[in-house]
Specification:
- Chain A: This is ABC transporter.
- The complex is a heterodimer of chains A (314) and B (680).
- Chain A has helices spanning 6-16, 38-53, 68-74, 85-97, 121-124, 133-136, 163-169, 182-195, 208-212, 225-229, 258-261, 263-271, 276-287, 293-303, 305-312; strands at residues 30-34, 58-62, 79-84, 101-118, 150-154, 174-178, 200-205, 215-217, 248-255.
- By secondary structure, chain A is of the alpha/beta class.
- In chain A, strands 3, 4, 5, 6, 7, 8 and 9 form a 7-stranded mixed β-sheet that branches. A two-stranded parallel ribbon of chain A has the order 1-2.
- In chain A, α2 packs across α13.
- The radius of gyration of chain A is 22 Å and the shape is elongated.
- Chain B has helices at 4-8, 24-49, 65-78, 87-111, 130-144, 147-162, 166-196, 198-213, 220-227, 231-256, 259-267, 272-283, 285-301, 303-308, 314-323, 327-352, 356-362, 367-370, 372-390, 392-395, 406-445, 448-480, 484-512, 516-531, 534-545, 549-573, 577-585, 590-619, 621-625, 632-641, 645-677; strands at 81-82, 85-86, 113-115, 122-125.
- In chain B, the strands form 2 sheets. In chain B, strands 1-2 form a two-stranded antiparallel sheet. Chain B has a two-stranded antiparallel sheet with strand order 3-4.
- Chain B starts with a helix and ends with a helix.
- The chains are: A alpha/beta (314), B mainly alpha (680).
- At the A-B interface, α1, β2, α3, α4 and α8 of A face α7, α9, α15, α16 and α21 of B.
Chain lengths: 314, 680
Amino acid sequence: MKFAPLMGAGLLALASVAPALAEVESTDPIKLTLHDWTGQLLTTKIMGSVLEKAGYNVEYVQADYIAQFAGLKTGDLHVAMEIWATTGQEAMDEAIATGNVVSYGSTGMQAIEEWWFPAYMKEDCPGLPDWQALNDCADQFSTAETAPFGRYLGGPVTWGGFDEERVEALGLDFEVVHAGTDAALFAELESAYQRKAPIVLWVYAPHWAVAKYEGEFVQFPAYTPECYTDPAWGSNPDAAYDCGKPTGPIYKVGWAGVSDKWPGAASAIEAFTIDNAAMGDMVGQVDLDGKDLDAVVADWVANNESTWQGWITQ
Amino acid sequence: MSVSETSATPPAPRRWQGVPSVPGWAFWVVLLGVTWAASHYAMDIYKALDARWIIRFPAAWQPDFEGRISAGMKWLLEEAELFGILFRDVTRAIARLIEIPYDLAVDLLVTGVLQGQGQQAQQVLPPLSWIAVTYIFCALGHYAKGWRLAALMGACFLYLAVFGQWASAMLTLASVLIAVPLAAVGGLLLGILAFRVPMAERILRPVLDLMQTVPIFAYLVPILFMFGFGPVAALAATVIYAMPPMIRVTIVALRGVPEELGELGVMVGATSGQQMWKVLVPAARPTLMVGLNQVIMLTLNMVIIASMIGAGGLGYDVLTALRRLDIGGGVEAGLAIVVLAIALDRLSQAFSARTVTLRASQSRGGWAMRHRWLLSSLAVVLVTALIGLALPWVQTYPKAAVISTGQIWADAIGYINVNYFDTLDAIKTVLLTWVLLPVRQFFTGIPWPWGLAAITLIGARVGGWRLAALVFALTGLVVLTGLWTKAMMTVYLCGVSVVIASIIGIPIGILAARNEMSNRVVGVFIDTLQTLPSFVYLIPVVMLFRVGDFSAMIAIVAYALAPAVRYAAHGIRSVDPQIVEAGIVSGCTPWQMLRRIKLPIIAPELLLGLNQTVMLALSMLVITALVGTRDLGQEVYIALTKANVGQGIVAGLAVAFIAIIADRLLEAAARRMRNRAGGA
């Protein structure tokens, strides 16, 4: 229960320090939203720490990934640090279209999503990670519900991803089963991994699972925009989607009023970037090594002063 | 729980009851046979007649409900005005009003009083120390009942401290302390209104049905607009969800007060206010407490969803832990919710049942003696706050002394997974092949025109033409929205789950009714199932049974078990002892007693339990969407993730209509059964 004492401890810690602060446009707290995955907590806390260094007041609010847009539109919430193009695009576009929410550009991180299998499957299915090997081993991946087809565990329906179309276009002997949440997705992975049982499923990065479990992404023909729009492209001349999935940027968004009320903060948020490797490393420290999240954030802030000084002195 | 028009009708007129000349069993057999044939040959009929509309309601016939509702909500939230004030400003003002006591509770229990904002904030006063809070609840326990309750309170709050749940639990407690009185008092007042003014009751009934059955996810986004993002919106959603049982119970309780008592009030010249508050409400108190119990249970049931919209606390811990597959962490936080629920429930029950002798014994002695608990609580608060300044462990439970069972849980699930997965998988496959899949095929295959006709026939059979018209209209609306197949998926999943929950729950209920001890054990078990967030067991279930209908079914059964048990136990206990005597005298074996005497007598009671089981099963739908079902719950969930208000409300209403249809049919069936048993 690493985050249990967050609220209390956080506020107590804040109460004990009251350093002299630089002049800022407004001392009203800027509300950043926290979701339920470690990477997002890290991104948000790093941004929050940097804003605090610049003299702003920061408040963290726990909010649901999608439901938060209602708050961002009305200005109840101010900044959301991670909106994945792969999962939140529709809600984000809808919100930006209202004019009350603006995008602060990419975080610099790229979301990778693809079919993934644990390393031990290579022994039973030597052709992997090439996608053409999937059909040779379809029977190994099959279950009572999907036999004779292999079972591919896809993400929640809302994540999209065109997996049904991909199975069809590439002639894969697989049936797509959708998990309802990402917790359910990784619960199945954990279960199969414990038993060294066959599984192929949707995994995305940056995520702790990629660090915890040994395995690889299936290599499909590389994605190009034409693959999704032009049936003639690729191995199947009659169907689109005969390729892998695109990678997508992770965006920062916020309430449109932020740039009026805290212009300096808005430009710092816009300047924020971090890369997949640095983030993957920090996620691993928290989720696998059991380090305290706030300590990891403090480390980053201490070691990267030149980076974040650039964000706030623009 | 029927529409008031139906209940106002004199005992159902014979001539309208379907086809009166057909005996009961023949009606049901024929109906089932025709439905099976329609379901089985739907494809062939469609091919033969070249009428695709038989199996898929054409999109061209569907009115644009979604778009209109979305537009309507947009207008309400952004443009609607009341006397020149924006509707949203009105709700925001209400939100600020609720926020005052909530902030006070948070200051007291979690943060202490702060001055300044953000990082400049200074703590002026510390929050109540963990020792002080525990002591106060022990004191309340002793005051309300005695040493045993005090010990229970102490154990509950120590659990929270020792297992490292304190800070989150206090945050949850703060919101519960605001939500429960709001829901309970609001429910009581609305219930009284409905009792006094028949018109109000007529309006309230359908509203209550909707409040209880429309999944909360469906109206989450509008709530956020109205009340702002944060704890208050979560409180509002909680109150909406937890209030209906209180209103219903209040109406039933006031009606149940013996007429003589009411007349006595009139005779001694009570004003109508005195009549209500001094005569009727106190007389109805035992039943009212059942309502309070449900309010507390439902409030704690909501903490997970509340945490998604900024309430924080234990619900948030459960979600975060499970997101990391930290099963132990999830179980600990989940059990903390259960512990809180049990502590608050037992305390409120004890307060309502305080006996005259207890009160008398407490009013003896001098002023200090009479107020010893209040005084000593104040002393503990002050002393721990002062010592806490020097010794931090007095103020906050030390981190070093926190116990964690985390790894044990994960290891246990891992062990079962590695060693018994194949066995479990075999059991699952059998159930899937022989029960779940055939039933699913049956329901999803029913073409909508016949489905509409069949449900109307059933309505006419069990409740007369008014009921038939009602179920026809509601089912027709579901058809018009184009959600027929998804609705049938819902009926299948809930139907199977309810049957299984009844098969397990009714025997447990009968067992619980045998004696006080087993009753108490079963009571704790049921309370745990109702308040332990289903997320906690959903993840291990997915690990052992994979994503799919089977996992969803287990979650629904676990949650919907409670009413089946409660009503069965209540029914058995209320069987007239003289009838039991008569059975014993005529030489019944215990088994004959149960089968021939008790079960037939409590059948109407069991039907009402079934009714509540259906309601709870339907309210679990949205949660089971999280493990990948393809029904109306998933539709609501998808609407939420796409921020599509209209789609969410339409699908939510479809769920509510199914619930209302089931409710009315079962209610009518129970009434028929009672009339027949009553010697008709």
